[in-house]
Amino acid sequence: MLSMIVDKKKQAHNEDKLDSLRDRLLDRAGGPVGLQTMALPLSGCTLLTLFSYMMWQVPLWMALFRWFGWPEFKLFAGILPAAIVYILLLYAAALFTAKGYLRAFRFFLIFISLTALGTLINFIAAIFPGLTGMAIHTTHLVTAVLAVIFSGCAFICLNSMMFYRTTAYCLHNHLWRGQLKRAQLKERQSVTRKQG
């Protein structure tokens, strides 16, 4: 919500209104000093989402390799590239979210929601054999439960007051950087006019 307000106000380029908005964001953040400036909730959510994702990769790729009839000793040929792409996308989304970009935040939310969906599917696949009377694979069940816990904790991090304060502070900094760039551009243009 804060990101949407900032995006709309930023388009106006009214410096007085932007200064007022920056002051309000700083008030909501509780000032520039404190744990919220370290983006702990965003970092925690990112790490917990990554751990949740990692927990269900082996069962997923084992099922895919069995389904396609590929040799299982080449399992890491699927896990490694998928993990690298996932990590790059997740951390890029988190980085641009920390810089105050609304689209990055939306992508981040979609990303962790899809991870949570994968976690839920993995959990159902882990307990399904027990429901049908078959033997449950203990390691798969433990990793599925851990993935659910990590995913739940990731959403708790996002739904915290500290995350709200972090977002307000990041948006404040985003506005401030934009205003500084515009001021530098105006200064360069005035110098160019004087020289020309």
Q: What features would you describe in this structure?
A:
The chain has eight helices and no strands. α3 runs antiparallel to α5 and α3 packs antiparallel against α7. It is an all-alpha fold. The two termini are 45 Å apart. The model has no long low-confidence stretch (mean pLDDT 83).
Defining traits:
elongated; mainly alpha; 196 residues; 83% helix
Question: How do the helices and strands line up, and which of them pair or pack?
Answer:
Layout: H1 2-12, H2 15-29, H3 40-55, H4 57-68, H5 76-98, H6 102-131, H7 138-158, H8 161-195
Helix pairs in contact: 1-8, 2-8, 3-5, 3-6, 3-7, 5-6, 6-7
Ranges with pLDDT <50 over ≥5 residues? none
Tally of contiguous helical segments:
8
Into which percentage range does the β-strand content fall? under 5%
* Average predicted local confidence, pLDDT: 83
Approximately how much helix is present in the residues?
Answer: over 70%
Helix and strand content put the structural class at mainly alpha
Biggest beta sheet summary: none
First-last Cα distance: 45 Å
Shape: elongated
Number of DSSP strand runs = 0
Computed CA radius of gyration, to the nearest angstrom: 23 Å
Could you give the order of the helices and strands? HHHHHHHH
